[in-house]
Amino acid sequence: MNAPSDVLGRAGAVLRAVAAQEPTGTTTSAAARAAGLPRPTTHRLLASLQSEGLVDRDPGSGRWLLGPELYFLGVAAAPRYDVTALAQPVVRRLARATGESAFFSARRGDETICLVREDGSFPIRSHVLSEGVRFPLGVASAGMVLLAHLPDREVDAYLQRADLDAAAAREHVERTRETGYAVNPGLVVEGSWGLGAAVFDAEGRPRWALSLTGVAHRFADDRRPDLGALLLREAHELTRTLAKR
């Protein structure tokens, strides 16, 4: 990872490193590795963020957690950005209809972040994704489908700066464009498969994604088309709902 060069960029990278480990928290060393920064620099940033209430430190374990000020900032921003109330019933419906774990994720720059998770009835579940977890575009099924629906010039620009196998990513893009939904055949965790469908904003830009994950045999060849068609229908309906906001 290339470390941000400006102070705000470094602080943001550290905050994201802490957020990725919620609710258990993270150590200074782990946050430094995730942010691509030296440990002393990370510790200074964490101390400054703590003084502003943006991070907190567990007195027993010494692990860093997100701070209370972030909650208040999030509440203030929610009316403008929060669409989870509209997505929640769709995610629940997908989980109940399929028995798999269902998710709603949002694009944030070169990443996707999971906003909603709902587990289905099937007893064996994938724990790759949960609320707050981020993945680069083109990695998990949500990021694959969002990348595939971007214009070619944006796909090319992203693959030039991303730490991905560009040839493999382009294959996923082409396959996703053919079917409309993305398939992740256990690329993040072996044996854990995923499908994703894009949700668009009022300008037709891919902003969010619905996805399903589960064990490999639940995503066999004879079932994937039906799951993909269901995802596409729900994604289309959610796109229409969000456009009316």
From TrEMBL:
InterPro entries (alphabetical): GAF-like_dom_sf, HTH_MetabolicPath_Reg, Tscrpt_reg_IclR_C, Tscrpt_reg_IclR_N, WH-like_DNA-bd_sf, WH_DNA-bd_sf
Entry annotated with the keyword Coiled coil: no
Keyword flag Kinase: no
A Pfam family reported for this protein in Swiss-Prot or TrEMBL: IclR_C
PROSITE patterns: HTH_ICLR, ICLR_ED
One of the GO biological process terms: negative regulation of DNA-templated transcription
Protein name per Swiss-Prot or TrEMBL: DNA-binding transcriptional regulator, IclR family
One Gene Ontology term of the molecular function aspect: DNA-binding transcription factor activity
Superkingdom, natural source: Bacteria
Keyword terms, alphabetized: DNA-binding, Transcription, Transcription regulation
Species the sequence originates in: Nocardioides lianchengensis
